[in-house]
Amino acid sequence: MSQVPGVGVGASPDEIRAALAGGGATLGIELGSTRIKACLVVGGAEPVASGSHAWENQLEGGTWTYSLDAVWTGLRACVAAVLADCERRYGVRPTMFRAMGVSAMMHGYLAFDADGELLVPFRTWRNTSTGRAASELTQVLGCNIPLRWSVAHLYQAILDDEPHVPHLASVTTLAGYVHRRLTGRDVLGVGDASGVFPVDPVTRRYDERMLARFDALVAERRPGTRLVDLLPEVLVAGERAGTLTAEGAALLDPTGRLQPGAPLCPPEGDAGTGMVATGSVAPRTANVSVGTSIFAMVVLEKPLDQVHEELDLVTTPAGDLVAMVHCNNGASELGAWAEVFGEFAGALGQPADADAVFGALLTQALAGEPDAGGLVAYNYLAGEPVTGLAQGRPLVVRTPESRLTLANFARAQVYSAFATLSLGMRVLAHEGVQLDAMYAHGGMFRTAGVAQRLLAAAVGTPVAVGDAAGEGGAWGIAVLAGFLDAPAGLDLGDYLARHVFADARIDVVEPAERDVAGFARFLERFEAGLAVERAAADAL
């Protein structure tokens, strides 16, 4: 790896300070569903400062969205926070960066006219209003097109004859939009692009045969439409994707101190940065990311034999084929219960911070019975395509014989976060897909050994958590930005193995037979009770 002179893993404060002052640090930014995070690294991989900004999606007119004003307010606050953290730690406020990268939630629909004006509010991955479009595209293209993919949103808008469609000039993702404003280039990393429209794993570009099929499909409604003209250019990891312009620098730092000129890597989706952050980009490896949603990325040795509605076929940031099990509902419901228990502690005169409450709840889950004492929980705040539910209603269901204790309740909530993922992973197992290891990351895994052990039971595979499990996607995209300086001919997998994770500490938990059997009983009840979940959505 091309290192900043004098800076490596375990660099001294003076070395880090010199790198920061000399513009030798790399900035990674990720726009997640509840937080915008920034991570500053030196030497290509060592995190030295961080910053974040909380935000929330809004349900407006039946559509889950974020305003573009909220995007830039959040980005400015996040960048200010990481620069302030840098100044607090090292007495230096960087004014330039060696490289940068932007990542964000995948999928969704950002549609612009020829002047770059947003035509309709941003439709996020969470929206499930594209059922007809996704179904027809899956049939016509011969490839599973999930509800949340950008092309499903576009085709649904065409089917509905929405007024904005005749004015369309470009469609992109959130990461692609931010990158375009920062650099002036309309591009996407191949991993993010593969959630917009199917990518050919041989060419690492949009599948040309499927593009032609789409154009033919919409020819009667939208004569002359060429989908490729609406979509961003596709780039793979290591390719330069533009430089920070003066306008882009001002968008991130209105004080004017941030200088333009930093090269940017291709903008990626949160799935791609999760693979990088866990070092799982090689065949027979996988990672699980848990946040508002939960998804597994399984790098395939060969294409699947059949089309499965439970699975997306996407790619790594280098363009290798990946089966993605994406579930709309992750740890949000568990987090909501942690807030309730925190309020209860405060009402008793024993206030505790949110992390302590969340950690205590996770620890209690380990003390629960293997099958959660007969309790069943559903974490469905939103619809869940994997189980065929258009809407979600969080539930806790028990029979008179169930044993309601705090430990069993906590275990049921953790299990519910993994249950739908387990159903999707079961499809891969039936396809004969084998894994050597599954890596986990996200805040849920900061409490050592709890979620990791229960996830291993849920997927029946050893689960590894490394040093960077809590760093997340902002660090992952910073690492991808550092890959711009990798020696010629070094692929992404080798780069990560040799220069990023060579000395990483990794904790591996094997599935415990008792937990596996207990989770299987829970999952059986979970599947049987989906009728209850469906009825709740219909009635309430």
Architecture overview:
The longest helix is centred in the C-terminal third of the chain and has 25 residues, at 406-430. Among the domains are: 279-329 and 424-506, Nucleotidyltransferase, domain 5 (2-Layer Sandwich); 332-422 and 514-539, no CATH class. It is of the alpha/beta class. The protein is built from 18 helices and 22 strands. Residues 1-8 have low confidence and may be disordered. It is 39% helix and 18% strand. A hairpin with a 3-residue loop joins strand 2 (35-42) and strand 3. The chain has helices at 13-21, 68-90, 131-141, 150-159, 174-183, 190-193, 208-218, 227-230, 246-252, 270-277, 332-347, 354-367, 406-430, 450-459, 472-482, 492-500, 513-528, 530-539; strands at 26-31, 35-42, 46-54, 58-60, 63-65, 99-104, 110-112, 170-172, 187-189, 199-200, 205-206, 233-235, 268-269, 285-290, 294-299, 312-315, 321-327, 376-378, 395-397, 437-441, 463-466, 506-509. It is globular and about 65 Å long. The strands form seven sheets. A seven-stranded mixed beta sheet has the order 16-17-15-14-20-21-22, sandwiched between helices. A five-stranded mixed beta sheet has the order 3-2-1-6-13.
Walk me through the topology.
Layout: H1 13-21, E1 26-31, E2 35-42, E3 46-54, E4 58-60, E5 63-65, H2 68-90, E6 99-104, E7 110-112, H3 131-141, H4 150-159, E8 170-172, H5 174-183, E9 187-189, H6 190-193, E10 199-200, E11 205-206, H7 208-218, H8 227-230, E12 233-235, H9 246-252, E13 268-269, H10 270-277, E14 285-290, E15 294-299, E16 312-315, E17 321-327, H11 332-347, H12 354-367, E18 376-378, E19 395-397, H13 406-430, E20 437-441, H14 450-459, E21 463-466, H15 472-482, H16 492-500, E22 506-509, H17 513-528, H18 530-539
Parallel strand pairs: 1-6, 6-13, 9-12, 14-20, 20-21
Antiparallel strand pairs: 1-2, 2-3, 4-5, 7-8, 10-11, 14-15, 15-17, 16-17, 18-19, 21-22
Helix pairs in contact: 3-4, 10-15, 11-12, 12-13, 13-14, 13-17, 14-17
